[in-house]
Amino acid sequence: MAENPHKLYYSIKEVAQQINVTESLLRYWETEFPHLRPKTTGNRVRQYTEKDIEQIKVIYNLVKVRGFKIAAARKMLQENRSGADKSQKVMETLFSVRDQLKDLKKQLDGLV
Q: Where in the numbering of this chain does the HTH merR-type domain appear (predicted)?
């Protein structure tokens, strides 16, 4: 996320917008994935850390991008946490490279 490198906590709304999911989906994932437990204030306001956001990105990759069912994604995370993390990092790198290539294409199209 790193919109503000000094920010320690993010609201559910900020996280939902960043990941492009609904707030209700984040709340649902909290019930389905035991390792996803954001801090809550006395008023039960969720406060997500960078670590929480990284976990959500891994879940998003498994469920939304790769099409895993919730139970299969949960099992994969429990059995192979490092593999899921590596897969997420590879996906992020690929998206970054894709965006860079799109930018280069726009620049080249502007030269013609």
A: 9-79
